[in-house]
Each structure stands twice: as structure tokens, then as C-alpha cells.
User: What shape does this take?
Amino acid sequence: MSIFIGHYNISFLDYWSIIHFASGLIVGIAFIYFKEKLKYLQKIKKFFLFGFSVLIFWELIEVTLRTLKYITDIGITKPFSSSESYLNIISDLIFGFLGFYIVFLIFRKNKNTIIKN
Assistant: This one.
């Protein structure tokens, strides 16, 4: 086990990396599904801006729930009881974005637009 792989919530790569990758796929697929109703998602810059914002927002929720765990004993904070290293937070964002990017590559129409139905 090293700083690169293995240590839960410390290393760059742990089993939560798979979950964050899958969450990036899910966010990307949701954006593709809703792009007709949310026209701004058809522009690539906005697609990535909002996608990355969702992933960052989730990481902020995780940090907030970990902080709340130290302040109170609310039941929802139990899965977030351990601390998380900055390296692991960054890797969570990278793996989430990687999943999101793969969805983009699959559904890209051209260099400026996401594929239309």
C-alpha cells in the first residue's frame, strides 16, 4: 500500500475511485438525457462547466458531512466519519471527470456541440 494506491481515503486510487468514476458517467448521461430541455448543455463549454460543477459540489457535500460528524452525531454523517486527504479529494474529482468525459466522447457530434437526438 502506498500514497498512490490502496489506503482508503488517503491514496490517489482506492475503491471509492470506481464509485466516483461511475458517478461521472451518471452525471454525463443525465446531462445528455436533459440536453433538449436544458439547451445550454448543448454547448461543450457549458456542458463541461456544469458537469465539473456538479462533481465539485458533491465533494463539498462530503467535506461538509465530515465536518458535521465532528460537531454532531447526525445519522446521515456516519458513512462520512473518516477524514479524506487532499490527494484523495483531487483523485475523486479526476475519476468523476474521467467518467463524465467518456460520456462526452461517446455522444459528441462535432467540436462545438453535443450530439442531438
User: Anything to note?
Assistant: The longest helix spans residues 44-71. The CA atoms of residues 4 and 12 lie 5 Å apart. The two ends are 46 Å apart (CA to CA).
